[in-house]
User: Which sequence fits this backbone?
């Protein structure tokens, strides 16, 4: 019986994670990871990679909770293993601050991070502009390490990596793929003509501040400080429909100012660099199956895109769900079409 | 200003005192005021000193911070106040430099509530600098972490001093197989290699002089005209004055590169004893890995068996360390004592009477307790001044 040919389009954190899940689990498939950009040139490489999330409005909370939990559990295991530094995964504790007491004091993922609690008055004294805060330990997953680490795992499981720009799904059908897993992020806007996809521009600075050990995040995620392995990422901006990839000096100035107010010692930090990423945003993540007729062939498509600023946070959980959708595709295929 | 001079006439002292106290008070004093009459009476007793010379022996965190506290509290009351620091070792070669710089007292103070109070005072003092631009120059920053035990234990002495103290959750304990109980909190780091140079700059700017030499006896200093000696000689205090309660607590640490670690992890074994169980303390430049506390061992040499044992235990605790690059080992002798010796002592050498303030024996918590002790030493200094009539009681 001919092996089922699966192609995962998009080699960011979602595509890479999905490819690994499929290759390691569905050993009767041949899996190809295909993209026009690979680490360190993906959007994921720009992300600080802190596991924190805002909910999607129309997806049942339980489903989103599973995505979050699956991802953080997977990363926690790596963090406590010998592979932690290779994979770029580390524990990160810190504070999320609010200028006024939020209606919902506990985000939907509060039970999945470690030690979630409200900040004490003494802790809040350090942040005179904020009235309420939450303290917890989460995970930071640095894609500049994590993506190469995933790729190694993918290849070990027999996966093939192909650098190729995909212009439309027809092409892939012509190339003989039976299942297409669409993790094209912002690219889905053109690849599958999804008008709901739009960029949310994020600019970040990397600074040298090795004395900072905690993350600090302003409630809405406008300003944040995320200490990493080799530098501290500070940000940010959330500019919807802004496609500019070049850094904006005004944004840099603004980011430094806002973050220095949260953490005054940042005024002494040397700026190492500035980057821009376009969050592949959508009202809701699209994680579903579709059966398409492409070039005379029935092709299963599993969509897994639109994670916005929560790609790293939901990567493994959505990859696992995409895997189960691919499984469903395989079980439901009539035997003849597998030849 | 009040100048204490050998040949001061009563009248001149009155005028000087009025001037000084007028500066200190909001309303000008008049010759008839009670305080002026008291000062005038005191001028009849022999005023012994023109200069006051204070010698601090020891340039670790205790010596330097005590010099600082004394300067802060007395430089405007005693003119001139000469402070000198004598030591054979200065930063970065002191015990304080090699220590990780992690603020945390031992789990339990065994009734030494005074020490707990001094530790808290130090924490609050360091915390107050966090939002200032100086914090980095002082080597101060916050870091959170885990205290782990193999069985449930009473809450530690420092639970109310630190930030966000709480017990560990089940899921957190899953991260540390072999440990079934513990606490999480946010504490401070004060890195000796940065803090000590900062203290020295602070003191130097204010005219404190430093002399590199080993002081062989208190007499040596007294003979040269020193009035008050501050003894911060740490583990080698015994060289100056025999102290049966002082003993070295040898510690060896490994400095490694593991920049992915952002939490300190301290394990506690109630059988092995404090700091004889693995600990991992990330700093701003490297990570300190330790777990060695050998009472009575004077060796300052790194030991390869200790290295092996410490490294293996730490890797078991934190598997990600396997890929950490080991930079170097360092050995230090903690100045261990049943309790800190922080007292003043009147001594005599030949015909000379002199005062010594002892401030040593801080074990493995010197950085943790330094400010509280320095302030207490300064208070003892004030007691000496009062007793010797070197400054009128009312102006203290």
Assistant:
């Amino acid at each position: 019986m001919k092996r089922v040919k699966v192609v995962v389009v998009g080699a960011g954190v979602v595509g890479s994670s999905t490819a690994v899940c499929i290759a390691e689990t569905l050993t009767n498939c041949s899996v190809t990871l295909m993209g026009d950009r690979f680490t360190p040139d993906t959007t994921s490489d720009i992300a600080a990679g802190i596991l924190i999330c805002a909910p999607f409005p129309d997806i049942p909370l339980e489903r989103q909770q599973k995505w979050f939990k699956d991802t953080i559990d997977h990363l926690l295991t790596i963090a406590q293993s010998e592979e932690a530094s290779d994979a770029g995964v580390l524990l990160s504790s810190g504070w999320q601050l609010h200028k006024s007491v939020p209606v919902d004091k506990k985000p939907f993922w509060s039970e999945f991070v470690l030690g979630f609690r409200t900040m004490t008055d003494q802790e809040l004294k350090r942040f005179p502009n904020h009235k309420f805060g939450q303290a917890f330990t989460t995970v930071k997953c640095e894609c500049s390490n994590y993506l190469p680490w995933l790729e190694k795992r993918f290849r070990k499981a027999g996966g093939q990596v192909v650098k190729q720009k995909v212009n439309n799904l027809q092409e892939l059908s012509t190339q003989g793929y039976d299942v297409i897993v669409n993790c094209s992020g912002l690219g889905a806007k053109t690849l599958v003509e999804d008008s709901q996809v739009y960029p949310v521009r994020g600019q970040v600075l990397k600074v040298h501040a090795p004395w900072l050990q905690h993350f600090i995040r302003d409630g809405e995620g406008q300003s944040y400080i995320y200490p990493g392995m080799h530098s501290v990422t500070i940000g940010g901006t959330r500019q919807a429909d802004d496609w500019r990839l070049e850094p904006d000096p005004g944004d840099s100035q603004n980011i430094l100012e806002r973050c220095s107010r949260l953490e005054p010692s940042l005024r002494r930090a040397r700026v190492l660099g500035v980057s821009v990423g376009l969050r592949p945003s959508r009202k809701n993540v699209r994680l579903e199956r579709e059966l398409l007729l492409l070039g005379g062939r029935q092709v299963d498509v599993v969509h897994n895109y639109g994670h916005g600023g929560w790609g790293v946070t939901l990567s493994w959980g959505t990859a696992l769900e995409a895997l189960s959708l691919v499984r469903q595709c395989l079980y439901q295929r009539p035997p003849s079409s597998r030849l | 200003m009040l100048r204490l001079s050998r040949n001061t006439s009563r009248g001149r002292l009155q005028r000087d005192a009025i001037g000084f106290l007028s500066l200190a008070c909001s309303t000008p004093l008049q010759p008839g005021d009670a305080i002026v009459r008291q000062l005038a009476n005191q001028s009849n007793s022999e005023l012994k000193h023109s200069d006051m010379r204070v010698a601090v022996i020891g340039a670790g965190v205790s010596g330097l911070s005590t010099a600082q506290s004394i300067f802060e509290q007395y430089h405007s009351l005693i003119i001139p106040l000469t402070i000198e620091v004598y030591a054979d070792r200065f930063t970065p070669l002191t015990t304080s430099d090699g220590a990780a710089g992690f603020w945390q007292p031992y789990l339990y103070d065994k009734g030494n509530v005074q020490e707990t109070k001094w530790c808290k005072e130090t924490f609050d003092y360091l915390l107050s600098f966090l939002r200032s631009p100086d914090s980095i120059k002082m080597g101060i920053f916050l870091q959170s972490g885990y205290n782990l035990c193999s069985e449930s234990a009473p809450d530690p002495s420092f639970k109310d001093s630190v930030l966000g103290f709480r017990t560990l959750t089940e899921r957190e304990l899953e991260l540390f197989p072999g440990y079934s109980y513990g606490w999480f909190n946010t504490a401070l780091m004060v890195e000796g290699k940065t803090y000590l140079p900062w203290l020295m700059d602070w003191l130097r700017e204010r005219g404190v002089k430093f002399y590199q030499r080993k002081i062989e006896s208190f007499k040596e200093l007294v003979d040269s005209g020193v009035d008050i000696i501050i003894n911060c000689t740490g583990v080698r205090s015994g060289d100056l004055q025999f102290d049966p309660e002082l003993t070295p607590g040898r510690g060896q640490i490994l400095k490694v590169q593991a920049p992915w670690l952002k939490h300190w992890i301290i394990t506690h074994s109630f059988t092995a004893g404090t700091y004889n169980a693995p600990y991992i303390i990330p700093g701003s430049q490297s990570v300190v890995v330790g777990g060695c506390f050998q009472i009575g061992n004077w060796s300052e040499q790194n030991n390869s068996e200790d290295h092996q044992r410490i490294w293996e235990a730490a890797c078991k605790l934190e598997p990600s360390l396997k890929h950490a690059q080991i930079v170097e080992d360092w050995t230090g002798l903690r100045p261990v004592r049943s309790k800190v010796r922080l007292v003043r002592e009147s001594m005599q050498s030949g015909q000379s009477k002199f005062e010594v303030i002892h401030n040593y024996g801080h074990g493995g918590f010197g950085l943790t307790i330094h400010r509280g002790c320095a302030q207490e030493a300064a208070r003892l200094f004030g007691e000496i001044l009062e007793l010797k009539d070197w400054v009128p009681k009312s102006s203290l």
In short: The CA atoms of residues 174 and 295 of chain A lie 7 Å apart. The longest strand of chain A covers residues 270-281. Chain A has a mean pLDDT of 96. Chain A is about 30% helix and 30% strand.
